[in-house]
Amino acid sequence: MPKNGGLLVAQNTAEKLLELAEPIVKNLGFTVWDTEFVKEGSEYYLRIYIDHEQGIGADDCETVSRALSDPLDEADFISHSYIFEVCSPGIERRLRLDWHFEAYLGQTVNLRLFKAVDGKKEITGTLDQYGNGNCTVLCDGAPVTVDIKNISKARTVFEF
């Protein structure tokens, strides 16, 4: 990806994957959790994260990969070589889209921030509210409100 506009290219590519994959994945009985197009080292990766209420196994990933292989080849929207991966979002999953946050209201989350809020660049607590450009997390019972644009990374937290 070129340095100028590389992020935009990645977002557009991930969105094209989502548009192509969503009906196919849904027909197989799964949900698309997220998509991404990233460069790691010298390799480009096109990833789709799938979910199911009963969890995701390796066989599920293989089923979706096989179902998407030909349509991806036919769509041919990536001009260079890449590695295609179908993954589970995992037990501690990335929260990126509005519906991700809404689905995890009342659950424990970890937010990494671009700029400190109340002297902290990382907040872990119960996701209490989400919307209107803000996210509120209860930390030791006290609400901490963060501008959504200040969140560099958000994940669910699995408590043993």
What is the tally of beta strands? 8
- Overall pLDDT: 91
Reading the helices and strands in chain order gives HEEHEHEEEEE
User: What are the low-pLDDT stretches, counting only 5+ consecutive residues below 50?
Assistant: none
Radius of gyration: 17 Å
User: What is the end-to-end distance?
Assistant: 40 Å
Query: What multimeric state do the chains show?
Result: single chain
**What is the approximate shape?**
globular
**What is the helical fraction, as a range of percent?**
25-40%
Please outline the major beta sheet.
Answer: 5 strands, antiparallel
Number of helix segments?
Answer: 3
Structural class: alpha+beta
